[in-house]
Specification:
By secondary structure, this protein is an alpha/beta fold. The chain is built from nine helices and 14 strands. 33% of the residues lie in helices and 23% in strands. Helix 3 (82-92) packs parallel to helix 4 and helix 7 runs parallel beside helix 8.
């Protein structure tokens, strides 16, 4: 099994006819994703040839859902248009919208994630690599050829670290890898993914990747303490980051002791999470936990 995204998922790509949309639609199709259409009001009625598959372009998400039964949208539009794209998808009743775009204004993220949640649409992102259930479907920009289906669930703020852990643990494989994004406001949290992985019978162990800034990892630690029975292994990026500066993601800012890598590590370890000092050490901790030697 998997969380959020399976081989049954039918995917629309908002912004498919743009440069990034075209490139990553081709990659998603190559990974086996059932991309059933693109959305661009100015190019509605056209068909885009991706070699093995011709994908129709619809004038709206509503039209795309009506014609194809799509339940997932991947959003490749410029930052200024993300709020409108997410609002359109939510109004159309899409179940899952994956917002890849970075640089979305925070006030737009606040507005569109709240709007979507009120209408039952789950948002992943913005400023995220998307998610992949290896061997089933890939919605976003995660490389599909660096791992295989398996028994680890992964949730991460960082796209790059998502890829590294996928590669380090490729011999075991993953049920689903979710890149939630590192902005101050995102639609899906560590806690959301922890709950989903806890309920997934084919996920045996969860890897949680965090980074400096905010208190998401501390809140995740509290949830793990109260609700998660499966082993969790963590990694926190940013132990060498200077205080008081933004580092990488817009959400990665540390003020005093709040949001530091050390504080997050301590909170996770206090509830039994093994936290690696490097991605490679984290992978070793995962292997040890799966072998029952942690």
């Amino acid at each position: 099994m998997a969380i959020y995204l399976t081989q049954e998922s039918r995917v629309l790509v908002q912004g498919m006819t743009g440069g990034e949309g075209m490139r990553h639609t081709r990659r998603m199709l190559a990974a086996g994703t059932d991309v059933v259409g693109g959305v661009n009001p100015r190019k509605a009625g056209r068909t885009v040839d991706f070699g093995d598959r011709a994908v129709p372009v619809f004038g709206s998400v509503t039209e795309g859902i009506a014609a194809t039964g799509a339940d997932v949208s991947v959003v490749f539009v410029p930052p200024a248009f993300v709020r409108a794209a997410v609002t359109e998808a939510a109004d159309a009743g899409i179940a899952l919208a994956v917002v890849i775009t970075e640089g979305v204004p925070v006030h737009d993220s606040v507005a569109c994630t709240a709007y979507a949640a009120a209408r039952g649409t789950r948002i992943i992102g913005p400023n995220c690599p998307g998610l992949i259930s290896p061997g089933q479907s890939n919605a976003g920009i995660i490389p599909a050829d660096i791992t295989k289906p398996g028994r680890i669930g992964l949730v991460s703020k960082s796209g790059t670290l998502t890829y590294q852990l996928m590669y380090e643990l490729r011999d075991i494989g993953f049920s689903t890898c979710v890149g939630i994004g590192g902005d101050p406001v995102v639609g899906t949290s560590h806690i959301d993914c922890l709950a989903a992985f806890e309920s997934d019978p084919d996920t045996e162990l969860i890897v949680l990747i965090g980074e400096i800034g905010g208190d998401a990892e501390e809140r995740a630690a509290g949830y793990i303490r109260d609700h998660v029975t499966k082993p969790v292994v963590g990694y926190i990026a940013g132990f060498t980051a200077p205080e008081g500066r933004t580092m990488g993601h817009a959400g990665a800012i540390v003020s005093g002791s709040s949001g530091t890598a050390r504080a997050k590590k301590e909170a996770l370890e206090a509830v039994g999470v093994r936290v690696g000092g490097t991605p490679t050490e984290t992978a070793r901790l995962v292997l040890a936990a799966l072998e029952g030697t942690a």
